[in-house]
């Protein structure tokens, strides 16, 4: 058996396989185009996920910088309490503001994650629908016809 070049692409390997298999009416180009569109959809989905992750990390950094700035400002503006009650009130107020900010930030980040995931899944869902239609068309017994009604 002849040695094949290691530089052959996967597409070339599938083309060669399709040409050598004794399967009648095998449209290798159509199969390869189908899988190429699948890979493109996966790439778009991954890009949407990466973009969402990058945006979320940027926002987390902004939140952290804001939190550090606020903590520094609060520390500079603090004065020694004159009584234990005043100290307790000051600490409770600081804890309340910190907690409220943390909850707001977590909600915002959760929303960003949800949007990113939804965008990525929508890309894949759309490709799956198209792939199912392509497969259905590929099983139509009449050459050149579609088993589905034409869509306008």
Automatic annotation (TrEMBL):
This is TIGR01841 family phasin. The gene is phaP. It comes from Tianweitania aestuarii. It holds the Pfam family Phasin_2. Residues 30-127 form the Phasin domain.
């Amino acid at each position: 058996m002849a040695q094949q070049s290691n530089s052959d692409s996967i597409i070339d390997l599938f083309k060669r396989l399709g040409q050598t298999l004794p399967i009648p009416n095998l449209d290798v180009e159509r199969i390869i185009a189908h899988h190429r569109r699948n890979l493109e959809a996966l790439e778009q989905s991954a890009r949407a996920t990466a973009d969402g992750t990058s945006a979320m990390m940027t926002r987390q950094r902004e939140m952290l910088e804001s939190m550090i700035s606020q903590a520094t400002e609060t520390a500079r503006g603090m004065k020694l309490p004159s009584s234990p009650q005043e100290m307790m009130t000051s600490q409770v107020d600081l804890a309340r503001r910190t907690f409220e900010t943390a909850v707001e930030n977590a909600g915002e980040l959760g929303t960003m994650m949800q949007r990113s995931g939804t965008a990525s899944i929508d890309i894949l869902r759309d490709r799956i629908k198209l792939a199912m239609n392509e497969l259905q068309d590929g099983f139509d017994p009449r050459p050149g016809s579609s088993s589905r009604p034409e869509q306008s």
